[in-house]
Design the sequence.
């Protein structure tokens, strides 16, 4: 077994354990292997271990890696997830390269992605939400959404506008917890995202099944708080290259 395969087996065990403790079905959590900075060979090892979902955060890197991986595995359909910040002028490449975009943080970006999506399957998106309130973090600014009615209403309006377009499939919400020494400290952030999702569903009647939250240092807590997608890089591929 390669190191990457062993790492994946370990992460999967931890996910099953976290699901058991939370009384959740392990099949309700999807593992995305975050392959940013890692070569196509590393992706191949993860594919051999059964992973089909990969996350990237830079468009240039993805534009070279995705076709290389496709050449190595022409028979295997891979789901590529964009998880990094997107500049408007890169929207066209993102809409072409990826099947799912987790980092939609404005109506403007959603409109650009919709306009740039080639014919065929609708692009799946998640709305990235800054629920922790960290100033340098991307995402819709909804740190105090429970009391800040204006921030909540602004997000609801954007969600409804995106939905009305009919060109993007809004799957749910994504967040990044602050970097903390103890993963318990991330729990309130994950819980806030789940409650925000519940509130958005109630207020709009739209289904938002996905919660993309949890990384190497905090995915167990994220699962306990309802994550349906975890984005794990270092625990699978080791330290980032370059
Ligand atoms: C890099 C990255 C991850 C994975 O982080 P690890 O700590 O390596 O698991 C997850 N989500 C986003 C948005 C990232 O940029």
Sequence:
């Amino acid at each position: 077994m390669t190191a990457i395969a062993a790492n994946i087996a370990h992460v999967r065990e931890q996910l099953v354990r976290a699901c058991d403790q939370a009384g959740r079905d392990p099949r309700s959590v999807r593992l995305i292997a975050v392959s940013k900075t890692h070569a196509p060979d590393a992706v191949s090892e993860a594919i051999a271990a059964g992973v089909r979902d990969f996350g990237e955060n830079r468009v240039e890197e993805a534009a070279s890696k995705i076709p290389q991986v496709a050449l190595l595995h022409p028979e295997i359909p891979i789901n590529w997830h964009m998880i990094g910040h997107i500049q408007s002028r890169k929207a066209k490449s993102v809409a072409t390269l990826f099947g799912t975009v987790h980092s939609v943080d404005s109506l403007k970006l959603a409109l650009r992605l919709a306009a740039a999506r080639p014919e065929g399957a609708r692009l799946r998106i998640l709305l990235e939400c800054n629920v922790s309130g960290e100033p340098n973090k991307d995402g819709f600014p909804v740190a105090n959404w429970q009391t800040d009615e204006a921030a909540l209403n602004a997000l609801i309006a954007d969600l409804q506008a995106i939905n009305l377009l009919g060109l993007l499939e809004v799957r749910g919400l994504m967040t990044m917890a602050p970097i903390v020494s103890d993963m318990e400290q991330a729990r309130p952030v994950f819980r806030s995202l789940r409650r925000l999702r519940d509130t958005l569903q109630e207020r709009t009647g739209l289904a938002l099944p996905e919660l993309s939250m949890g990384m190497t240092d905090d995915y167990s807590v994220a699962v306990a708080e309802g994550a349906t997608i975890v984005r794990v890089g270092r625990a699978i591929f080791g330290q980032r290259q370059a």
